[in-house]
Each structure stands twice: as structure tokens, then as C-alpha cells.
Amino acid sequence: MDKWKVLIADDEDIIRDGIRRCVDWEALGLQVAAEAEDGEEALELALHHSVHIALVDLNMPIMHGMELMKQLRERLPLCRIIVITGHDEFTYAQESIRLQVNDYILKPADPGALMQVLRGVRDDLEAERRQSEHLQQASRQILKNFPLLRERFCQEWLDGNLSREEICEQLQFLKLPQAPPQLISIIRWRGEVRQPAMKENERQLFLFAIENISTELLEPYPKVIFRDAAGLIVILLWDAGGEAVLAGIEAAVRSHLKIAVEVGIQQVDADITGLPAAYRKCRVALANEQPLSPLVRRARQYVQEHYTEYGLSLESMAGILQASPVYLSRLFKQELGESFGTYLTQIRIRKAAQLLHSSDMSINEVAERSGYETQHYFSTAFKKHTGVSPLQFRKGVLPEEGDSGVPGNG
């Protein structure tokens, strides 16, 4: 690297000349970048050359050495300062210690002592440079491994092995939102179980492709996608607006890879320690879920994508899907365990609850964004399903015992 740059600041030519001549700068890896005969000039040159070491005489005109050192400390905080002082200025030298002066030499400067002082300051600079390089290298390595570090953290979070304080610290360190994810999703590839003879590299390629499709679809949303201890693909999503996208992953994978996957979606409790419970609930629901017929899968996805439309009905959806309304209604109830109307209402109420909790929208705006044509109809439906009015819900009022809560993911 380039030599360390030195400034010599002393109002006496003979002192500056003596210091410059008596030191083997080359051997020390140092270079005299500038000389100054007053404090003001010294400060200007120090800043211009970004010097690493300043030899400062205390008794200089225009700007006193003490003021110069204060300015250097503020404007070149990494610069090392060596005070040049006479015996009668020793009180100043003591005060300079408070300005974190690195060393001082007495006039007239002894060449051997000056070399020793400069060598010590140079060694300190080089040690700090090496430490900085190690830290930068470590920082680059951490950034390179951020995805892996995030996955490991999220797995520990799912396992319930972290305290609240540890979770908050890791979220901040890994540059993730300082809150629990709003949704957790688990993707299971049904074909894995049915094709035990599949080679491991083929299986990994399919899983990797599923992750890539999911990542691409969820590109605008803050998330972490990783494999859990069982090899299932887990998605933590910090924006509930991506729920319809999650629901569309099944169709996207079927279209691009010609394989079938099941996607479980579960809301996460607002408490930062509630993730493990949501993860377990999502896994249990996914394990118990029977494979859906292609028609019901398409119908469920259609509801997820169009629930904001006032006119959405079983009949209109059946027309789009080219199916009999009666047949679709029966199949929907049979496979999802609830009627189309109930399922649609749950989706809308859950979305409304998210908006009430996370935004400052008016009740009327929330109603519109949730698929309700009037605020009155929305408020009636919301209270029927949650036990409290939208305004009470926003204020954190809990339903009385016996009232229903906000529905889950169905």
C-alpha cells in the first residue's frame, strides 16, 4: 500500500528541517506529505492530504497547537497526533493527553527517540489497518452468507429455541422486518411420496425449481424461503397482501413443472414468539388435508384472487370455470368442508382484520378493499363473525366470551 502520510507543523524552520533530515522515512514506510509554519496552514494541509500522522508544535501563530489538535480530532479523527514540546510547555502537553494525543517529543528532538515514537505510531496504524481489513472481510463473508444465516435463524425460530430478545436482535442483524411475519406457508410436493425410486439429484432439482417459482411470484414482498428440518419448503411472509400469490403457487408449479404441490397457509399471531405455534398448526393442517380436485383448486385460487369484487358469486365463478354451479357448490363443500359463501366471507373478514390492524384506512375504505359494497353491510358481517365492530377491533377490544373470533385460514 502507499506510505503513511506525515505532516510536520512547527513555526521554526530549523525544527522542521531537523525533523525531516534526521528520520529515515523510507525505512519506516512513511512520507512527509506537507510542512506548515502556523496552525491554520497546518489544518488546511492536513485536510488536503488526509494525513495519517501530524507532528504538532504547541506554540504556533495564528492557530495555537491546542486548537489545531482539537480541529484535527473533529475533522480527521483517525489521524495520529504527536506533540512537539519544550520543557516550559509541559503543562500543555499534559492537557493534550485529554485530546487523545498518541505521543510527544521534547525539543530539541533526539533522532533515536523520534524514530522510536514514529515507529510505534506506524505499528499502531498498521495494526488498525489489518484489523479493519479482517473486519471488512468478515463483513463481506457475512453478507455473502446472509441467505444461509437467515434460514438458520428462521429454523431456530420455528423450533421455539430463541428468546424474545434473541429474536429481536437477529431480526435487526439480518435486516428483516422488526415484527413477526403475518403469514407462514408450507409447500409439500405430493409426488415425492409417490416416487420413492426418484434419484436424489432429480428430487433436489424439482424442489429447487419450486423455490425459484415461489421466489419469483413473491418478488415484491418481504419474505424468507427455506427448507425446514423435514425438507418441506417454508415461506415466511411479512405482507399479508401476498396471500393470493401464495394461493397461486400451486397452479404456477403445475403449469411450469407438470407436478402437483399442496400449499398450506396460516396466519401468525401478532406476538413475536407466536411463530412456532403457527408453524405447527400449518403442518398439521397440511398433513390432514386431502388432495383437492383440480376444479376445487382452481375455484379456491379464483376466490383468493377476486374476493375484492362486489359481484363475486358461486354462479359467476362457475361460469368462468365452465362448471355447473350445483356441482361446484357440492364439490366445494365436500372438499373444503364449508360452503362457497362461508369460505368467501372468511377470506374477506380476515383481509379486513389485517387492514384494520396494519393500516390507517377509514372503515369505508377497508370495506371496499375487502369486497363489501357498503360500510353498513361490512360492519354487520364483521361483527357477526368476530363479535366486535370494526372500530372496536381496531382499538383492540376483545369479543365477549361466547362470541366468535376472527376466522382462521379455513
UniProtKB/TrEMBL annotation:
The record places domain HTH araC/xylS-type at: 297-396
Q: Does the keyword Lipid biosynthesis apply?
A: no
What CDD domains does its record include?
A: REC_YesN-like (cd17536)
**Family matches, as PROSITE patterns:** HTH_ARAC_FAMILY_1, HTH_ARAC_FAMILY_2, RESPONSE_REGULATORY
Q: Which UniProt keywords apply?
A: DNA-binding, Phosphoprotein, Transcription, Transcription regulation
Nuclease keyword on record: no
Q: Give every Response regulatory domain span.
A: 5-122
InterPro entries xrefs: CdaR_GGDEF, CheY-like_superfamily, Homeodomain-like_sf, HTH_AraC, HTH_AraC-typ_CS, Sig_transdc_resp-reg_receiver, Tscrpt_reg_AraC-type_HTH
Residues where 4-aspartylphosphate occurs?
D57
The cross-references to SMART domains, in alphabetical order and at most eight, read:
HTH_ARAC, REC
Per its record, how is this protein called by name? Regulator of RpoS
Organism, by scientific name, is Paenibacillus auburnensis
